[in-house]
Amino acid sequence: MTNNKPQHIVVIGAGLGGLSAAISLASEGFTVDLLEKNDKVGGKLNVLAKDGFTFDLGPSILTMPHIFRKLFERVGKNMADYVSIETVEPHWRNFFEDGSTLDLSSDPAVMKQELDKLGSDTARQFDEFLAYSKRLCDITEDGYFAHGLDSFWELLKHYGSVKSLQEFDVFRSMDQGVKRFIKNQKLVDVLNYFIKYVGSSPYDSPALMNLLPYIQFGYGLWYIKGGMYGMAQGLQKLALELGVNIQVNAEVVEIQHEGGRASAVRLADGRVLAADIVVSNMEVIPAYKNLMQGQEAEIRRVEKFAPSCSGLVLHLGVDTIYPQLAHHNFFYSDHPREHFKAIFHDHRLSEDPTIYLVAPCKSDPSQAPSGCEIIKILPHIPHLDPDKPLSADDYAAMRERVLIKLERMGLTDLRKHIVCEESWTPVDIQAKYYSNQGSIYGVVADRFKNLGFKNAQRSKVLKNLYFVGGSVNPGGGMPMVTLSGQLVRDKILADLAK
Ligand SMILES: Cc1cc2nc3c(=O)[nH]c(=O)nc-3n(C[C@H](O)[C@H](O)[C@H](O)COP(=O)(O)OP(=O)(O)OC[C@H]3O[C@@H](n4cnc5c(N)ncnc54)[C@H](O)[C@@H]3O)c2cc1C
């Protein structure tokens, strides 16, 4: 520990961000209490067993496993002893309305064969795009990820000059960045849809988001053997071994403070836990709104860090197998601009959504009874907007629209084959995880609202309050929130050393 005084840290929330922070801080000798409102750890990385089906309720794709590996290695452990991962091939199968398909593969020969279906020059264009994507990824990893840069000014200081920032392709949107290289509209739509990893729009987000394809092709696309929840279980085991005191069913209702410092947290059951440092995995805006009073000015200041989209998440158990599906599938909208405009500008449900469909039994048949499989469907939809409320009937109508579209695009009689169903709307997502307006990835990446930045990890209100998770830099998604837990350790150690 940096100073001689023992420090007691309370972490609010045991999502991946909170687990990672708790592990990273406990391994530095801090005493850590990890308080989770739900009955198990993992946050949005959640699981439900129902009628013989095992539904992964949250993430289905693991990328950048090295970020998780680092958590284990830093405490002298081997991740493989806790979590078993395997690559998925093909990465994605893409379905278009004209009946054609395109597989994305980690095998360059297969990839070339697929791209040749779109025209003889497409593979060359794609290679150039991927080199651009790698450059964006390299420069981002070097500063924003490695040093936890938290604002435009920190970025400027790190990279030296505005000119070097141009390497981030700052004047273009993601879509414009893709179109610099790719002529075929189907491939444009596919590469634009990598924005799914952060729940934003390719037309509004900065071109920097074109690092996402390299993250997938360069670091691989992974599944966790036995189901995605295995990562939460592996991290929980590691946290317990390091002495983290994990309490579930332990909701924090207040961060108490005096003299500009957090002093304790109060739980829903009335207990008060004193703290030298508080780390919140509850998102920034909900934490200021619900755990502290009088933060209206700060909430207004951070409003530009608006919520990402939400999702209509349909977990279906079906009594048939659809052989045309891969593990990860995308069914494209013929009207992508209208689709993204509906979600991010009009806050209404898209008439013709692009649909992400996961069929995990393709890699792991044990998730469903024999002869059955899981079809998980996730169209992105707007976060909750009190000015434009959507009703249960609206969500039900969208469910029907989505199922009809999938049937039209080849999943014959899908509705007739459903034998088990678990559906989540943004209302459920907000209620379960207290996310900001039901967002599923934290803060939206929008070049006009926030240049793609998220909130800073250090609170501007209390000196010893820090944040982790999707609402702070470096952002949402499993690897990023896990990285935020490691970066907060570095920030706390640096602040204590001052
Ligand atoms: C349907 C869906 C699909 C997704 N797909 C992918 C994917 O394929 N790949 C990917 O990388 N990411 C995916 N994501 C995103 C990913 O799940 C999240 O970015 C990540 O898990 C969020 O972690 P977090 O730590 O920021 O927050 P959370 O997981 O939300 O954790 C916050 C925790 O804090 C707890 N909490 C909040 N307030 C309090 C309080 N006051 N007291 C106590 N506890 C509190 C909550 O209960 C929760 O457990 C998906 C998300 C969803 C919902």
Short synopsis of the structure:
The chain is of the alpha/beta class and 498 residues long.
Q: Can you put this structure into words, describing what you see?
A:
By secondary structure, this protein is an alpha/beta fold. The protein has a domain at 8-86 and 226-304 and 452-497: FAD/NAD(P)-binding domain, CATH 3.50.50.60. It contains 17 helices and 20 strands. It has helices spanning 16-26, 65-73, 108-116, 122-145, 152-159, 162-165, 174-179, 185-192, 212-219, 230-241, 284-290, 296-301, 336-346, 392-408, 414-417, 426-433, 478-497, and strands spanning 8-12, 31-35, 47-50, 53-56, 85-87, 92-95, 101-104, 222-224, 245-247, 252-258, 261-267, 272-274, 277-280, 310-311, 313-318, 328-331, 355-358, 373-381, 418-424, 465-467. The strands form 5 sheets. Strands 6, 7, 14, 15, 16, 17, 18 and 19 form an 8-stranded mixed beta sheet that branches. Strands 9-2-1-13-20 form a 5-stranded parallel beta sheet, with helices on one face. It has a 3-stranded antiparallel beta sheet with strand order 10-11-12, with no helix packed on it. A hairpin with a 2-residue loop joins β3 (47-50) and β4. The longest helix is centred in the first third of the chain and has 24 residues, at 122-145. The protein is globular. The mean pLDDT is 96. Flavin-adenine dinucleotide (FAD) is lined by residues 12-18, 35-38, 43-45, 58-61, 251-252, 281-282, 311, 313, 378, 433-435, 440-442, 469-470, 476-478, 481.
